[in-house]
């Protein structure tokens, strides 16, 4: 009986590990790539999205955007490409896809403040690391010589000054990341922009799929968003933020 239970446990463990490997981000990405090559865009979207949900990656989101675009989902494609640039702003291919998609769909890019523009120069999570490393480097150069009972050298002061300068310069970009995280994109065609957060509310205008807006606040199943032209309420399912919440 003990041998039987042990064998059963090993079998269950092996099945679980196989399922884990089959559901890994790498395996799902390969499945999505294979589906995309044979024009199975629905299958590719499913696999790429599952992979990105487990482990967001710029390349996965780039390919997800391509699959969504081939399916005629302009809003989902633009969102995926924007999320790809959030993780890797150096991807010129993704930037080119966004320019092309917006030109075809006659859509505007989000309006960014100067500090939000600065925040796009590097991957979003880099700015927090830069701020932390530069700040504590400056603190270390000021404190360590005294703690170690060593004379403060000129290079200590130079490193401290450099660290403090980098820290201060990174603050606007860090703020830009925070405010830019509230930018999102309309996901459905002809999305009504309502005056109030109710189903029966009067429609101010209709938004195109892929149109950018800023999230102002939430109420129940509705979101108050501000576009480049107007402000109103949309249903939660009709809008998605650029920042993938974990």
Quick take:
By secondary structure, the protein is α+β, with helices and mostly antiparallel strands.
What can you tell me about this protein's structure?
Helices cover 59% and strands 14% of the residues. The strands form two sheets. The chain has a five-stranded antiparallel sheet. The protein folds into three domains: 2-105, Serine Threonine Protein Phosphatase 5, Tetratricopeptide repeat (Alpha Horseshoe), CATH 1.25.40.10; 115-180; 183-241, SH3 type barrels, CATH 2.30.30.40. Mean pLDDT is 88; it is low at 1-22. The longest helix has 27 residues, at 154-180. Strand 5 and strand 6 form a beta hairpin. The chain is an alpha+beta fold and 246 residues long. The protein has helices spanning 2-22, 25-37, 41-54, 58-70, 74-87, 92-105, 114-119, 124-147, 154-180, and strands at 183-186, 191-194, 203-207, 212-219, 222-226, 231-235, 239-241. Helix 3 (41-54) packs antiparallel against helix 4, helix 4 packs antiparallel against helix 5 and helix 8 runs antiparallel to helix 9. It is built from nine helices and seven strands, in the order H-H-H-H-H-H-H-H-H-E-E-E-E-E-E-E.
Placed side by side, the strands forming the largest sheet appear as 6-5-4-1-7
Global geometry: globular
Quaternary assembly: single chain
| CATH class categorisation of the largest domain | Mainly Alpha
Let me know the CATH homologous superfamily of the largest domain. Tetratricopeptide repeat domain
The percent range for helix content is 55-70%
Structural class: alpha+beta
Using only CA atoms, what is the Rg?
Answer: 24 Å
CATH topology of the largest domain: Serine Threonine Protein Phosphatase 5, Tetratricopeptide repeat
The overall pLDDT average reads 88
Beginning-to-end CA distance, first to last residue: 44 Å
Approximate strand percentage:
5-15%
Tally of helical runs: 9
């Amino acid at each position: 009986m003990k041998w039987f239970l042990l064998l059963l446990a090993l079998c269950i463990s092996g099945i679980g590990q196989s399922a884990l490997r089959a559901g890994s981000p790498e395996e799902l990405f390969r499945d999505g790539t294979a589906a995309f090559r044979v024009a199975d865009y629905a299958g590719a979207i499913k696999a790429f999205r599952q992979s990105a949900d487990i482990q967001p990656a710029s390349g996965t989101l780039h390919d997800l955007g391509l699959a969504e675009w081939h399916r005629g989902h302009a809003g989902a494609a633009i969102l995926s490409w924007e999320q790809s640039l959030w993780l890797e702003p150096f991807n010129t291919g993704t930037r080119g896809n966004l320019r092309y998609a917006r030109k075809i769909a006659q859509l505007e890019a989000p309006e960014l403040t100067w500090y939000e523009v600065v925040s796009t120069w590097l991957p979003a999570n880099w700015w927090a690391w830069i701020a932390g490393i530069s700040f504590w480097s400056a603190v270390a150069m000021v404190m360590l010589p005294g703690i170690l009972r060593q004379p403060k050298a000129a290079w200590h002061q130079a490193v401290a000054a450099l660290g403090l300068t980098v820290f201060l310069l990174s603050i606007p970009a860090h703020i830009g990341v925070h405010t830019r995280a509230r930018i999102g994109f309309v996901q459905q065609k002809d999305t009504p922009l309502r005056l109030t957060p109710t189903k029966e509310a009067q429609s101010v205008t209709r938004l195109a799929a892929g149109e950018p807006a800023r999230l102002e606040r939430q109420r129940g199943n509705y979101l108050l968003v501000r576009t480049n032209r107007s402000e109103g309420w949309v249903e939660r399912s009709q809008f998605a933020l650029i920042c993938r919440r974990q």
